[in-house]
């Protein structure tokens, strides 16, 4: 796995590698982005001295893709009051800010890098103890044999971790590649890779494929670095995310329909709610959040497929909104002509002089752009079987895991246990956050991730996990 990004905040050097302590249950958490960090922190808080967490990630812990940005313009898209690491302590993040003299209100959209620093601060406390071991490597394979009381995790630095259970907090995975790109085309395949935004900043003209929140980040960074930049963002519908209002409106209580649910019935119900009071569409969308996962599970597979194919983009721009200040900046960029947004799909891109000649097709018409750079902002690959992570491929090919019915994440039981190829939920392998997105509509934002982390920590610290031999983390010959 290649390093994809660099964070601005560093964990204390006291983060050390230590061996398992006798009598403690060892939980390996693979991935130390927000999901892995929150899982580790919930386990350590709840578990007292009975748990040891081994956190495995080749990248700086606590940040992940979303919070490793160093651009202060990149704001959270969720208000500070909803971003606490602990659901039962909604002021935790605000109090953390206040203790550091940072002026932050409940309704504010804070810089994402500040939130990364917050997550890291939670981890540092434990990393300085012998209860949290950090392994700066990728997990490449997992073995978990029926009847055996441990899982065995191979890491890219040739270390082996033996744990009572493993939690997969792998995030979204790398972006899916774009088709039709000729050799030598100046192209940013992964906008979160180190140096990617600097490439955008060097461009006079760039075409961004994708018009979601990632494209918004790219536009902000590019425009701040180069005031005369011209950006064209293209997607199937040409829709930008909508903006939040400065003050959070109270979500409308929406009741899930009883009995069998169909997508058609839901669309009729939601349309009627919105038609009754069009300006209050945010209240309706936010009001659906508490019931979305329940309703999602009750939809037929065909309806879930239809939603993903036909309604997902519409849902995403209304559900995952921009901070108001970001919305204003984007409007200004559009107003000044520095950012144009259009419907279309990338037909081809090839090297042309020092730049790229890009063909965009919309229906029967095609438009040509000469730009310095093409940027892929289409988001993560939507097929888990296409993952380039050897760990994911191995889990699927060994039958320890199977893809969910939509093929976009892991099949899991309702508590996050991986379901194996025989359809049985694992007692030792679990997942949270984005890898559960086939089973859960709401699983990628902090409020849901922290609830999953809390529930998983409760589950992992009770039950059969932990009845095994003491020596649980060991180095093999040649490992550092
Ligand atoms: C740009 C952006 C902005 C966002 N803004 C917000 C926001 O404001 N509010 C909000 O609630 N949500 C936001 N989100 C949603 C976001 O998905 C979650 O908040 C959260 O960051 C997800 O974290 P994660 O740890 O699951 O995934 P990631 O951040 O992707 O982290 C996964 C980690 O797993 C590691 N990993 C992967 N494979 C392996 C392996 N084999 N071995 C070891 N480690 C591995 C990776 O190195 C990575 O560090 C945003 C998402 C993005 C992309």
Write up what this structure looks like.
This protein is α/β, with parallel strands linked by helices and 480 residues long. Strand 12 (345-352) and strand 13 (355-362) form a beta hairpin. The chain folds into 3 domains: 25-74 and 111-174 and 382-474, FAD/NAD(P)-binding domain (3-Layer(bba) Sandwich); 187-242 and 321-376, FAD/NAD(P)-binding domain; 263-319, no CATH class. The chain contains 11 helices and 18 strands. The strands form 4 sheets. A 6-stranded mixed sheet has the order 3-2-1-7-17-16, covered by helices on one side. A 5-stranded parallel sheet has the order 8-15-9-10-11. Flavin-adenine dinucleotide binds next to helix 1 and helix 5.
What ligands does this structure carry?
flavin-adenine dinucleotide
Largest sheet report: 6 strands, mixed
Number of domains: 3
Q: What is the helix/strand order?
A: EHEHHEEEEEEHEHEHHHHEEEEEHEEHE
- What gross morphology would you assign? globular
> N-to-C terminal Cα separation, in Å?
18 Å
* CATH topology grouping of the largest domain: FAD/NAD(P)-binding domain
In helices, the fraction of residues equals 25-40%
How many helices?
11
Average pLDDT figure: 90
- What percent strand? 15-25%
CATH architecture of the largest domain: 3-Layer(bba) Sandwich
CATH class placement of the largest domain: Alpha Beta
The multimeric state of the shown protein is single chain
Which terms would index this structure?
alpha/beta; 6-stranded mixed β-sheet; disordered N terminus; 480 residues; 18 strands; disordered C terminus; 3 domains; binds flavin-adenine dinucleotide; 30% helix; 19% strand; 11 helices; FAD/NAD(P)-binding domain
């Amino acid at each position: 796995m290649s390093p994809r990004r660099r964070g601005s905040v560093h964990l204390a050097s006291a983060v050390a590698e230590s061996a398992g302590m006798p009598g403690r249950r060892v939980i390996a958490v693979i991935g130390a982005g927000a999901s892995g960090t929150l899982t580790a922190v919930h386990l350590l808080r709840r578990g007292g001295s009975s748990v040891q967490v081994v956190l495995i990630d080749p990248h700086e812990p606590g940040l992940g893709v979303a919070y490793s940005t160093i651009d202060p313009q990149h704001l959270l898209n969720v208000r500070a009051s909803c971003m606490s690491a602990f659901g039962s302590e909604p002021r935790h993040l605000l109090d953390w800010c206040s203790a550091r003299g940072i002026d932050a209100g409940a309704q504010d959209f804070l810089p994402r890098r500040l939130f990364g620093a917050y997550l890291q601060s939670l981890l540092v406390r434990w990393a300085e103890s012998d209860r949290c071991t950090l392994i700066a490597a990728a997990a490449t394979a997992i073995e978990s044999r029926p009847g055996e009381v441990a899982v065995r995790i191979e890491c890219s630095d040739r270390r082996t971790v033996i744990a009572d259970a493993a939690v997969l907090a792998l995030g979204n995975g790398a972006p899916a590649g774009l088709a039709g790109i000729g050799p030598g085309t100046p192209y940013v395949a992964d906008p979160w890779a180190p140096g990617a935004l600097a490439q955008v900043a060097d461009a006079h003209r760039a075409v961004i494929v994708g018009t979601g929140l990632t494209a918004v980040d790219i536009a902000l960074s590019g425009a701040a670095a180069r005031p005369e930049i011209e950006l064209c963002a293209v997607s199937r519908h040409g829709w930008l995310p909508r903006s939040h209002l400065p003050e959070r409106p109270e979500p409308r209580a929406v009741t899930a329909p009883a009995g069998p649910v169909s997508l058609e019935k839901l669309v009729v119900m939601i349309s009627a709610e919105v038609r009754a009071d069009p300006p209050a569409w945010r209240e309706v969308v936010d009001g659906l959040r508490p019931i979305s996962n329940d309703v999602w599970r009750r939809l037929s597979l065909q309806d879930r497929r239809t939603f993903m194919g036909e309604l997902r983009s519409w849902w995403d721009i209304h559900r995952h909104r921009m901070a108001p200040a970001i919305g204003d900046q984007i409007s200004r960029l559009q107003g000044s002509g520095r950012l144009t947004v259009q419907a279309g799909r990338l037909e081809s891109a090839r090297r042309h002089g020092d730049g790229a000649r890009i063909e965009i097709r919309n229906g029967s018409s095609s438009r040509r752009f000469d730009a310095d750079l093409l940027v892929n902002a289409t988001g993560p690959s939507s097929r888990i079987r296409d993952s380039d992570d050897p760990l994911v491929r191995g889990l699927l090919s060994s039958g320890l895991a199977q893809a969910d019915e939509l093929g976009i994440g892991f099949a899991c039981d309702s508590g996050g246990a991986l379901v194996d190829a025989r359809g049985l939920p694992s007692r030792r392998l679990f997942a949270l956050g984005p890898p559960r997105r086939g089973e859960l509509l709401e699983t990628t934002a902090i409020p849901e991730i922290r609830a999953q982390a809390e529930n998983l920590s409760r589950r992992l610290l009770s039950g059969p996990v932990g009845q095994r031999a003491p020596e649980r983390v060991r180095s093999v010959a040649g490992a550092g």
